[in-house]
Structures
1.
Amino acid sequence: MDNMYDFERTIEHQFDSFCKTVLRNQARNLYDENKRRNKILVSLELLTQSELCQLAICDIYESKYIHISVFDYDLPIEDVLIAQAIESLSKRKILFYYHSFSI
């Protein structure tokens, strides 16, 4: 009976030791992974204004533009006053100015 009890305790100690080893190795792996990640990643607070501007993106919404159709071309124009001025021009002048400025 004592042999069985000693055997169970030995198995419990081995299992306990195994679990501690697994947890220790996993903690070491996570620490190493965080260390590698911290070498690559940079906090946004440390970036200069010019570096932050390179990361910025402005969304462009179609509803923001006034569309003028000229000879099967759709010209998106953002400013209302410019759109009114362009509409007062002839269609040929509109295409000439639009293509010369958009190139």
2.
Amino acid sequence: MASPAKKTAEKLNLSKSRPSIQQMFDEVAPTYDFLNHLLSLGIDNYWRAAATSRARKLLQGVPSPRILDVATGTGDLADSMSKIDGARVTALDLSPEMLTIARRKYPSIEFHEGCAEELPFPDASFDIVSAGFGVRNFEDLRKGMQEFHRVLKPGGHALIIEPMIPRTPVLKNLYLVYFKKVLPKIAGLFSKSTFAYDYLPHSVEQFPQAEAFTAILRESGFRSAEYRPMTFETSILYIAKK
């Protein structure tokens, strides 16, 4: 008989199927915004602002830029991107419950339900494709990145924010203790879906980090890909050019 720890690990490894991800985010939707801000100590707002600032610089001279925010969740990154002068923002997410909240928060943004591996948009439609803390949940990471590349205009950019495990040993140890021991307990006080916050550190550990992910971006067709660690290497911004 499998041990409880092994059963949990097996469940976590199976959890990246599209229906499982949708169900998980539907369950956490009511407390998602509150816990995001609480568990990141509010720094998630800075990370989104940093991505938007980079997008603004990349879009200088582009009239009426079109931006697609994928895995938009409750729409905070899409809203941040919408502050760029002249930008027309479209957003997409797998979870209908997340989108219900997003549409209520940001009625001026066009939200679509769908998955990253099958984006419902024509080739070369957008100047920027962004994603905040959602790419690691894609069922097929490479196919998702190929779709990002497909819907970007020539010369367009993908901007992707993900959590990062610090590479400095002391910071890494502190980060993992917080991520694996403290964070799930705090989340459990406010959310019925404790599994989602057990899944979170697992998904971050399993995701290809830094050079490994930029290699995947290049393999997906991007001409160049780079990364910028943020806040003591606890978050990372990837920039890829078509």
3.
Amino acid sequence: MQSTLVSFPDGALAGEGEVLLVDQRASIIVVDATPFHPVDHTWPDQPGDSGAITVGEAEVRVTEAVMAAISDEGALAVGSDIPVKRGGEGWTWMVGHRTEGAIPTGIAVGARVALTVDADRRASLSRGHTACHLASLALDAALADLWRKEIGTDPLGNPDFEGKANQSSRIHADGSVDEYRLGKSLRKAGFDSEGFAATLAEREARINETLAAWVASAGKSRIDVGGPSIVDRRTWRCALPEGEVGFLCGGTHVRSLAEFASISVSLDLADPQLLVMTTTAAAR
């Protein structure tokens, strides 16, 4: 058995495949190839796609695509129950399709099925994910002068606040919420937390100006893939006025920044130890 072949990096919303496994108890269907993007079990920032699987007259609703893994001994693990990181040895990595209700008998091992992704949900999550990455880059740029020591840099060459402080990221339809820990370790690394707090409104305005300029540039966006399976490396790339940027990323994205009417953020420092950045995207 080989890892699931995926077509979502190319923007696919439909496909066909052969059913490899049906688990009625876990309400999971595994197919050899799928257009569904699954939520990652180790960094669950982007929710999995929803949609439907059909064969003949039988159809089942897919509530969310998830990561699944089958051990060399034949044990199935799904989502957070997977005991190793993606690509870990001794496991075959699959996309599991979590279903709503009982799985029809027509959808059985060996059947050829049609898979259809909810296009509106995919589009809104893709906008949310692209906006999340752009907001993190704009945040790094807006905070660049607050570092007293040199640290690693982001794809635009700014001090990598995102990489140093981000503790969680949750993408949703047309937006995201990111949390950054502003604790002792960040101050020891050279970040001026007090200066940041004193200029919060100015930093927010600077981020939003940058995002408005990037949206106006209508740069192209794409996903480069290292191979066709769910475990192969994928990199998001986007053309910005400052140059092309790229992140290792397993999610889905827009094809062009022209798909946005706007992207904006709000910064919340109600807890001085925790920055919450809420990103909101509007579709054109």
4.
Amino acid sequence: MANYTTLDQIDVSALADGYGIEQPTLTALPGGAANSSFRVSSPSGAYVLTILDNHDARSARRLAAHTQALFRAGIPTIEVIPARDGSLTTPLGDSTVILKRWVDGKVVEPLPLELLADAGRALAQLHAVDPTSAGLTDVPVGTRRLSAAHLDYIPRFEDRAFADWLTAGLDRVRSAEAGTQRTPRITHGDLFADNLVISGGSRLTILDWETLSLDDPLLDLGMAVVGLAQEDNALVPARARALVDGYRSIATLTRADLTGLPLEIEHAALIIAFHRYFRHNIRFPDPDKRTIHRALIRFVDSIEGHVPGV
């Protein structure tokens, strides 16, 4: 299992001194696949303290800087609170922490249909951000794509039928994408419902920029379709259309883009399928989740014939 920071490991007095917070009280928050988070309540306000158990100091600083830059660029996300010395991260034992302003709201899964257009608009707004103007530096490239190291694992998967399906799908996607050139944009890479907070019934706040990278915006839109436009492990055309229509109200999608979108939805599903298998069968084996990757096979089968927006 992954190692997470627990409440009794946090030096609350050091936190108070480092950030100038009076009488803070901490409450553990549920969720989080890689890091530990706590609500910090105090007379001066409410905050989220995230312990970056899955980061070294350098990658933690980069994550904090990217989050703050996007907030200042007008992207609907959470503001990072600097420490008293001005730094966006502080050390905590062997880990590093980020303090962010609390946003009142809730995560709803699946995201309500009426909010899918808003999610699409927010993604298009993100793709329009100019990295230089926004002060986004040290942005990785293609974070969400499977690396050579990832691909090397597939022949060793015990679920051979899944490995063969995954290999065939990735070969088909790579062949179809060959020669396609789209301008790389700032992408989120994980726009799923659990990374969206709904406030006031309709306002969306985007969380979790750990997979931010420069990449093909159409793949990022495809990833959002996987995350937000399926029910019972199948694509729901009405949900996909609402998401894509919201996106198109901000950004232009050519007919070639719309024709190519199903391929990028499939590519995104293959990426997620790999990570589900890898996480629950190899990295952190979990008997209760050892077969959840197979749901993506049904999802990929449901994509054919559905081109949102055409």
